[in-house]
Amino acid sequence: MRARPSRSVSLLVASVILTAFLAPGAAARPPAGDAVPVPGPGVAAPEGAGPGRAPGTVLPEVVELAVIPVEPPVQPARPGARDLFGADCDIETEGSTVTAYCHNSYPETDLVRLHVECDRWWDVDGDGAAVPVGPAGRAEITARCWKEVRSTWVTHRRP
Question: Which residues of 72-106 are buried (b: 16+ CB within 10 A; e: fewer)?
Answer without folding.
Answer: eeeeeeeeeeeeebbbebebeeeebebbbebebeb
